[in-house]
């Protein structure tokens, strides 16, 4: 009976040792930059940065154990005759994470699209992910574009691009 007891004790100690080692490896091998994904952003209404911060605060509490960081920035261009299908294609390109988005109107020059071309910011920063509502985002862009055209008293023209700048959001432990 003592041999069976010793084998049982050795098995339990071995299991505990294995469990502790795995927990330590998991704790210290975590990537400090983890992608952030939030449900229901820009699905019913556009989720601006302030609203997003409030959403995160209520979801994770006031004592968040991490900071939100901006990751890689990417760009997507819509030509002047864009449709809702272009927004669908853009959203399909996104990974399953949250992105901070800003939209600019760029006037088309005769040579093409250059960094020095005049730009007008169409929106303040808002949040999207691949599950955001494409119709809502399309309507939002159209509304903001029409506001600019009305402000400058110009007709809807074919001489512009829409630049969508989107930056992935990550959390840091």
Topology, number of strands: 7
Rg, rounded, reads 25 Å
As a percent range, the share of strand residues is 25-35%
- The number of helical elements comes to 4
Look at the helices and sheets and give the structural class: alpha+beta
The N- and C-terminal alpha carbons lie at a distance of: 49 Å
Q: Give the proportion of residues in helices.
A: 25-40%
**Unreliable segments of 5+ consecutive residues:** 27-32
How would you describe the shape?
A: elongated
| Biggest beta sheet attributes | 7 strands, antiparallel
* Helix-strand sequence: HEEHEHEEEHE
Number of domains: 2
How confident overall, as mean pLDDT? Answer: 80
């Amino acid at each position: 009976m003592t041999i069976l007891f010793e084998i049982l004790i050795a098995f339990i100690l071995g299991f505990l040792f294995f469990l502790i080692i795995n927990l330590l490896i998991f704790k210290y091998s975590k990537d400090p930059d983890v992608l952030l994904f939030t449900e229901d952003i820009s699905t019913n209404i556009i989720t601006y940065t302030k609203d997003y911060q409030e959403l995160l605060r209520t979801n994770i509490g006031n004592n968040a154990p991490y900071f939100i960081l901006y990751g890689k920035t990417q760009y997507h261009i819509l030509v002047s005759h864009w449709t809702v299908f272009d927004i669908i294609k853009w959203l399909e390109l996104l990974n399953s994470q949250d992105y901070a988005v800003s939209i600019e109107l760029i006037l088309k020059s005769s040579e093409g699209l250059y960094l020095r071309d005049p730009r007008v910011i169409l929106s303040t920063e808002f949040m999207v992910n691949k599950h955001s509502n494409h119709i809502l985002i399309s309507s939002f862009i159209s509304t903001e574009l029409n506001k600019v055209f009305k402000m400058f008293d110009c007709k809807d023209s074919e001489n512009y691009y829409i630049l969508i700048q989107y930056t992935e959001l990550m959390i840091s432990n």
